[in-house]
Amino acid sequence: MKGIIYILLAITISFSIGLLAVPKIVQVSKIKKLFAVQNHRSAHNNKQIPNLGGIVIFSSIVISTVILLHGFDLNKIASIILASFVMLLMGLIDDNIGLSAIKKVIGQLLVGIYLVILGDVRFTNLHGIFGLYEISYGLSIFISLTAIIGLTNAFNLIDGIDGLASGTGVIISCFYGILFLYYGQPEYMILSFSITGSVIAFFLYNVFGTKNKIFMGDTGSLTLGILFATLTILYNEITPLNPMKNPVWISPAIALAIMILPVIDSSRVFYLRISQGLSPFTPDMKHIHHQLLKINKNHLHSTTIIILSNLAFIGFSVAFIGLLEINSIFLLILTMGFLAAYVPVIVHRYQPVEEETTKAITEDKLYIPYRYDPIIKMTNPAIPATEQNKSMPEVSVKTESSISATDEIRSN
After folding, report:
1. Helix runs in 137-185, H state only
2. Does 313 share its domain with 374?
């Protein structure tokens, strides 16, 4: 009963802080003209939207956690809060000045080294994944750093449409919070549910906000990414080393199901980019959410589909534990995840071209790669015809070139 009270308090406090703070951050952003930079991949054309939501997310999480951890061991999360604060600063710099991919990775590596070596947040046992149980200190550091950098970037990459990162954050933090409650880890439970309340408040403004609409930016996605990477490692480490004592919660399979969206999406786009001879950090529109958005042109619908799929994977992993050994479940979840990621690609490929193109142009949301940016300019009613003519000769949307452009998008 006491645990339930702490859960409700954590969610309520962080949610309330977020709900009250977002309008203030939006007001300051408008005064200082701190808006998200629009580019060829932006889903909100010609709109000035503040992107400092990460400040609210971080602040509400920390305040709620510190208040409720009075009487508990605050040292258990001190290194986590410091690491997430550094990520917040890195995100602020990236959102307002810009950081190259390599600089961000170096920064994440340094934060990861701090967490793993000084904070001792690392994998020590893999519970039988690929036949590995207890692992050496050197291998522990390598796997832990890879997980921290990989999961942080993976979560950062899914922040592409309204509600997706925050909605996924609700799912991840809720399930980890429940698991930490189950295993008697109040400090991590309070931290997890403080994240839940914070991202719920952000979700409301991000998805349904008009006057106070806001993005989390890298400030928020990097902060949440490092938090979820850390919670993943901590959950793995507090699970009983003998899974037969508690076969329902075999941590690696459950953790994979919880983090399935960022893991699958980032792995898929990295593979596609590298296979085309590009840097894995080259921006494009091959993410799962972009593929869904090409089909239904609705942020909330696309987000809902992805979140429900995430819940289905979690339910699937729980249902099969006890029926299959852990490696079979782990590989089955990965395989199903990659197959599911290609469903919207296949659906989009067989969608009628003319109907799809007309609908996209009507809604001023022709989601196409940067190399076809002139088409966006020609079909964007917000750009005067005189300006269009300066940058490009008149071309009908139904010409062979525009149709072939759409066909190439579909092939991606």
Report:
1. 137-157, 164-182
2. no
- DSSP one-letter string for 273-304: HHHTT--TT---S-SHHHHHHHHH--HHHHHH
For residue 210, which amino acid is it? T
pLDDT tens digits, one per residue of 247-287: 545 678 899 999 999 999 999 999 999 999 888 888 888 89
Cα(345)–Cα(142) distance, integer angstroms:
34
Phi/psi region, residue 213 (left: phi>0; alpha: psi -120 to 50; beta: rest), is: beta
Alpha-carbon separation of residue 113 from 105, 143, 191 (angstroms): 12, 12, 22
Residues 269 and 370 in one domain: no
The number of folded domains in the chain is 2
Question: Which among 347, 362, 387 is the end of a domain?
Answer: 347
Cβ-proximal residues to 67 (8 Å cutoff; 6+ apart), any chain: 13
Provide the domain limits for residue 395.
Answer: 352-411
pLDDT of residue 280: 86
Query: What distance in Å separates the CA atoms of residue 265 and residue 269, rounded to the nearest whole number?
Result: 6
Considering the domain architecture, whether residues 234 and 381 belong to the same structural domain is answered as no
Domain identity same for 370 and 301: no
Q: How far is residue 186's CA from residue 179's CA, in Å, rounded to a whole number?
A: 10
Angle of helix 260-275 relative to helix 299-320, nearest 10 degrees, comes to 110
Residue 309 three-state SS = helix
Q: Does 357 score more than 90 pLDDT?
A: no
pLDDT tens-place string over residues 377-394: 333 444 444 444 444 444
Predicted TM-score (pTM) of this structure = 0.82
User: In whole numbers, what is the pLDDT of the chain averaged over residues?
Assistant: 82
User: Domain boundary residue among 319, 347, 375?
Assistant: 347
Better pLDDT: 300 or 409: 300
Q: Which of 2-11, 117-126, 188-197, 358-367 has the highest mean pLDDT?
A: 188-197
